[in-house]
Amino acid sequence: xxxxxxxxxxxxxxxxxxxxxxxxxxxxxxxxxxxxxxxxxxxxxxxxxxxxxxxxxxxxxxxxxxxxxxxxxxxxxxxxxxxxxxxxxxxxxxxxxxxxxxxxxxxxxxxxxxxxxxxxxxxxxxxxxxxxxxxxxxxxxxxxxxxxxxxxxxxxxxxxxxxxxxxxxxxxxxxxxxxxxxxxxxxxxxxxxxxxxxxxxxxxxxxxxxxxxxx
Length: 215
Ligand code: AP5
Fold this sequence. Notes:
Number of strands: 8
Bound molecules: BIS(adenosine)-5'-pentaphosphate
Largest sheet: 5 strands, parallel
Radius of gyration: 17 Å
Strand content: 5-15%
Mean pLDDT: 95
Structural class: alpha/beta
Number of helices: 9
Oligomer: single chain
Shape: globular
Order of helices and strands: EHEHHHEHEHEEEHHEH
Strand order of the largest sheet: 2-3-1-4-8
Distance between the termini: 10 Å
C-alpha cells in the first residue's frame, strides 16, 4: 500500500501520517523532515536548502527527487509508504510515476486533506515538538498531559520550526496554491484522488483516512 497525503502547510499531513504508520505498518516518508535533518547535519543539501526553506519557497525538484528515490528504495519501505510533503510540483509527480514504474511499484491512493487557509496560520503558529523524540504538540489542540513534559519520552525540552513564523507561513501557502494545487487535477485524471475534511477533529480525520486505506 503506497499513498500520498496532499494538503497545504498545517493541514495535518504529518500528524496523520504518523498515526497511519502505526496503524497500518507503513513508513512515513516526509521530505520536510529529511530536509530538516540535512540542514541540522550541515550537509551540502542542507546548506542549499536552509535559506530556501526559511523563505517558505520550494527546494529545487532535482534535489528532492534524488533524495526521495534513495529513501523509497530502503528496506523498511518495502511494506508500503506514506508520502508526506512529496510530490509538491507536477515535475515531482511525473518523476515519482517514473520511479515507481522502474521499481515495479504502484500508487494506491492520493488523499487530499481539505483545510481552510484561515485555520492554517493558527495551527502552524501553535505547533511545537519534543526536542528529544520529535513528538508533535500544539498550544491549543494537543497539549502534553503533564505540562512541559513529553507524553512519549518524558523529555522537557521543546522546539518550534524556523519556518513557522506568520510571514513565512504566508509564503508557504502561496507556494502551495501556485505549485502544489495543480497536482489535484493531475491525480484526479489518474483516478487516484480522494478528499477528506481536514477541518474535522484529529480522530475523525484519522477514521476517514483509515476507511480509504482499508479499501
Ligand atoms: P514540510 O515539512 O513538508 O511542511 P508543510 O507541507 O508546510 O507541512 P507542515 O509540516 O507544516 O504541516 P502538516 O500538514 O504536516 O501539519 P501537521 O500535522 O504538523 O515542508 C517544509 C519546507 O521544506 C517547505 O516549505 C519546502 O521549503 C521544503 N520542502 C519539503 N518537501 C518539499 C518538496 N517535495 N519539494 C520542495 N520543497 C520541499 O499539523 C499542524 C498543526 O496542526 C499541529 O500542531 C497539529 O497538532 C495540528 N493539527 C493537525 N490536525 C489537526 C486537526 N484535525 N485539528 C486541529 N489541529 C490539528
